[in-house]
Amino acid sequence: MRYVSTRGQSPAVGFVDAVLAGLAPDGGLYVPETWPAFTREEIAGFAGRPYYEVAAAVMGAFAGDEIAPATLTEMCREAYATFKHAAVVPLVQLGPDTFMAELWHGPSLAFKDVAMQILARLYDHVLGQQNRVQTILCATSGDTGGAAVEAFRGRKHVKVIALFPEGRISEVQRRFMTTAADANVACVAVRGTFDDCQAIVKQAFQDQALRQAVDLSGVNSINFARIAAQAVYYFTSAVALGAPDRSVSFCVPSGNFGDAFAGFVASRMGLPIARIVVATNSNDILAHAFEDGRYARGQVHATMSPAMDIQSASNFERLYFEAVGRDAAVTAQAFEGFNTTGVIEVPADALSVMRQMFRGVGVGEDDTAKAIVATLNSSGQLIDPHTAVAVSALGRAADTPGPVVVLSTAHASKFPEDVAKVSGLMPQLPRGAADLADRPERFDRLAAETETIKAYVRTFAEA
């Protein structure tokens, strides 16, 4: 299995090199040269199997012969043993033909754990064989940083630096990062937005001298291994509801578009997905892209669903690449132009391809709050604001064919004040995280300046 850049100016690489690099040297994102596929019989055979076995099968299709199947299976078994629910991603019924996949039973109570736990083990395995120490630089809009810190803390082959926008994530999200005392972890509160953090990470990766000096890597959703790992729960959820004998739809709260793109990946692998509703909050760049064909960056608005307060969704480039017939030159021109103008007019043919599967719905704060209350009243489930965005969006996407699975991306206790204000109920942290507020924090504050943060990365990596 070989991986190519969406911008076409970097050589094809293998799975391991794509994972360790994160971002391609030309600024593009890695995608498989060809999409692996399962037969209907293979997909049907996933029903009833332990989650880690399905994960090993899906990840193995992308790893090819670079990681031995038995080794990958053991990594997956260890990764998902960290989850507090035996099903790893259980389904809960919300109503007739409507279900919720709970993706937050991992160590940091967010869906990012599903991918990050296996990614940490992939890094450990490969870097240990190569006797390397890499520096991971990640930007987080809330949950990626906590999941990365939980997964990589204490590992001897990796140093982790997590950038987060100061004052724009919840206290619980912040504490999952900043209370780690391990010497291989550094956290930085950036005086800016998540988009600022993400832009700094991309610029750092394009500094070839820095990449070489600190052996830089990334575990944001730009890393294809995360996309592959997230495709797994599309398979397990769909087969539990009758796939491949019937199609299943999904409604996905989306910021950086990695979670929703993982559904596209699952469909390319043979899973029958009828539709994916991409639910955004008032930062609705993706909703407009799918509905109007105009991908235009606007001002970032702070909302009660902060992990989605994004106006530049990195993984949209991967879908764009597919929709324009894998034309790397067209993709490079569009996204290099976006860096300057903040706008991409999606070609009509490409938009038609996207809309075969995707619909976009933007949801305001009032509707998010109403969805929390309505879900509690109708099902007894107390959901977080990001899940509520998806529930509300699904209500406005009435033509979505069922059964439909809403992806619940975080435990309500990660946003206690907002949930309590809306519902009247204070969500409690699960037992393993109950003392989070009592743990001392450790982090630095820096301006949203690329050179300042690059110097910080070099100093921390070389210490």
What is the name of the CATH topology of the domain at 91-109 and 224-423?
Answer: Rossmann fold
| CATH class wording of the domain at 91-109 and 224-423 | Alpha Beta
Q: Which range does the strand content fall in?
A: 15-25%
Largest sheet, strands/sense/barrel = 6 strands, mixed
Question: Uncertain segments of ≥5 residues (pLDDT<50)?
Answer: none
CA-atom Rg in angstroms: 20 Å
Spatial gap, N to C terminus: 36 Å
- Which percent range fits the helix content? 40-55%
Q: Could you give the count of β-strands? A: 16
Instruction: Tell me which CATH architecture of the domain at 91-109 and 224-423 applies here.
Output: 3-Layer(aba) Sandwich
Structural class estimated from helices and strands: alpha/beta
Which overall shape is indicated by the principal axes computed on the Cα atoms? globular
Strand order of the largest sheet: 4-5-15-10-11-14
What is the structure about, briefly put?
The chain is an alpha/beta fold and 463 residues long.
